[in-house]
Each structure stands twice: as structure tokens, then as C-alpha cells.
Amino acid sequence: MLKLHGRVETSRNKLNRYQLLYVTKNNNVPEVVRSKYALIVNDKPTNGYGAYLDFEKRDLDIDNHFFLKDEFRYLVEGDIVRLDEKGNFATLFRVNSTNNTILLTTRCNHYCLMCSQPPTTQDDSWILSETMELLEMIPKNTKAMGYSGGEPTLYGDGFIELIQKTKYCLPETIMDVLTNGRYFSNHEYARKVASVNHPNLTFGIPIYSHDPVQHDFIVQAKGAFDETIKGIINLKALGQKVEIRIVIHNLTIDDLEETCKYITRNLLFVDHVALMGLEITGFTRANLDQLWIDPFEYKDILSRAVKILNNYQIPSSVYNHQLCVINQDVLGNYHRSISDWKNEFVEECKDCSKMNECGGFFSSSKQYKYSSHITPFK
């Protein structure tokens, strides 16, 4: 698992606010733009860089000298990092990654039992301002990116301004927004978002059961199901792309087939359905006894759910599962999907001939729980 942020030691730190900087190993960046770069230093760094990143803890006569541990050695030319006056460090964008996702807020109007990013009530609107600045730095040839939370639409019109700027800065980049969709039940708000006319925008919206009571229990928000369904309908009526996401666990598995049938009867117009394995982090750890089910135990239910969606020609994918715990009949829908920075394999996989095809595990699974039926292909 890659470490993307943390507190680092610093010497002569003269930053008076956060700085977003490009990573470089080039000691001869033109002086006129040098302050926009963080130099991975050698023994004789040139003056004028915005910051200096040092893996050797050299004693150098320079300002804004940050000492990084080896866990950040993945940094390459063109990555974008955030540094501040307190010594906080974060990697915001990696040029070699296809899984760059920006966390827009930790605030949310859900309290999902398996939330991987437990919500807070603190004002973190500074993240939105930072993201506006970051958009101007991200390469325009970036193929795909994502926004997540918390709940991004809690910014109201601020979220719409973000989508507008995203379209301006990254007009050809495929953008995914993870949202519970409830704000889009307000038709006027949905209309404002649609009027931005972003050409490559998809909203990933969860539905955890066809039963409103069960869905609302899982997300811990009364009335959430009805608002979510209305939000999906509003978005599709306005020509927006929508993906329905179903996280599979012990509280959703019994309803999975009926939920897929509900989608075929009522939401046949959605663009994609994702059937997703459980990530054991955040609230999932506290609720694991209530949520855990071995994927091997539900592989036949998963096959039937996929068949329902395929029969109605709804594009669908199976994410976050391992090849050895699914049936062969879902391989046409199977994708490697876990973000590269938290994707690992367990000891049982070391002799498997299909590791390059398999989705692997979330890093957290290695620490807490994973299927007892992991069997290497020979």
C-alpha cells in the first residue's frame, strides 16, 4: 500500500500557507517557474525551488527542506504534492496512476454502516478551493479521474462551479463523481449540473436494496432511498450518465437478485451497474461481524445477479473480487478495479498463474479478513 499523506520533518520551513508543487528531479528548471516545483534533492541543489524533498536528511543551507521517508520514494517527475507550514505532506496527483481520485469533503448526509471514509461535521471547504487550484496543474492529457467524499453535492453551487472548472481545465478527461444522489432529487439543482454540459461525466450512485427500509437502514438516513431514486431519474431525464453501485455484504446479499430485478424494471436506462466487493476499512471494521460474508459463499447469487443484468443488456461489472472465488460465467463482467495504491495480494497468491489477471485485494483485507477459499491457479 502506498502512503499518500502524512507528517514529515522539515528544516527552515518558511511556508506561510499550503503550496501545491510539481515534483521534479531536474536541478535546472528555469528560474522563472522554479518556485512552482518541489525538487528531489541531490548534494548540490539549485536555489529558488518552492520546496526541497530529501530522502537522505542532508544538512543543506536551503529553505523549505522536507525530509521524506522511503515510503514516498514512488514520487516521479510531474507528480503534484501539497506541503504546508506544519510539515503536512500529501500526494494529490500521480502521473503514472490511472486511479487519481480527489476527496472533496469528509462531510456527508449518510452514515453508511460500511463507509470507508467516516463522515465528520467539520468545515473542510478549503479542500474545494485547493481542488480548484489543483485542476489548473493537472495535465490536460489525463485520461480519467474521480471525485469522492463524503458527499460532494453538499457544496451546493460550489460543486457546480467545480464541474464547470473541471470541464474548462480537463475537457477530454473522463470524470467519475461518487455521490449518494439525494441532492439531485431537487430538479432545479440537477438541471444546473446538467447545464454545465460536461462531455465525460458519470455519477456513481449507490442503491443497496430494492427495499427502501433496508436501503435506509444501511445508509442510516431515513427517506434516503426515495430521494436517491428521484435523483437518478432526474439526472437521466437531463441526459446525464449514471452508474448504480451495489456494495455486496451480509446486509445486501439476500436482496441482490431482487435489487437487480428492480433496476431492470424501473431503472433500465442507467448506463452501468457495478457489483462491488467490500473494503474493510472505516466503519466496516467496527461493523464487520454484521457485514462480513465470504465471497465464495455468495458466488452463485453473484452469477444469477449478473445474468439478470446481462439478460436486459444493462452494462455491468464485477469489481473488487478475486478470480478464485467467483464462477466462470461472470468473467465477461469481471474487472480489475482496486486503486493501485491500495491493491495487494496475500501469501496464498504467490504461486498463482493468474495474478496478472486478478483484481487482488484491498490492503486492509490483508490486515483484517478475506475469503478462506483463496486458491492459486496452477
Descriptive overview:
The chain is of the alpha/beta class. The chain folds into two domains: 5-93, no CATH class; 101-367, TIM Barrel, CATH 3.20.20. The protein is built from ten helices and 17 strands. The protein has helices spanning 126-135, 157-169, 187-195, 212-219, 224-237, 256-266, 283-286, 288-291, 299-311, 363-367, and strands spanning 5-7, 9-11, 19-24, 37-40, 51-54, 65-67, 80-83, 88-93, 101-103, 144-148, 174-178, 201-206, 241-247, 272-276, 316-319, 343-344, 361-362. The strands form three sheets. Strands 1-8-7-3-4-5-6-2 form an eight-stranded mixed sheet. It has a seven-stranded parallel sheet with strand order 9-10-11-12-13-14-15, with helices on one face. The chain has a two-stranded antiparallel sheet with strand order 16-17. Strand 10, helix 2 and strand 11 form a beta-alpha-beta unit. Helix 1 (126-135) runs parallel beside helix 2 and helix 6 (256-266) runs parallel beside helix 9. The longest helix is centred in the middle third of the chain and has 14 residues, at 224-237. The mean pLDDT is 96.
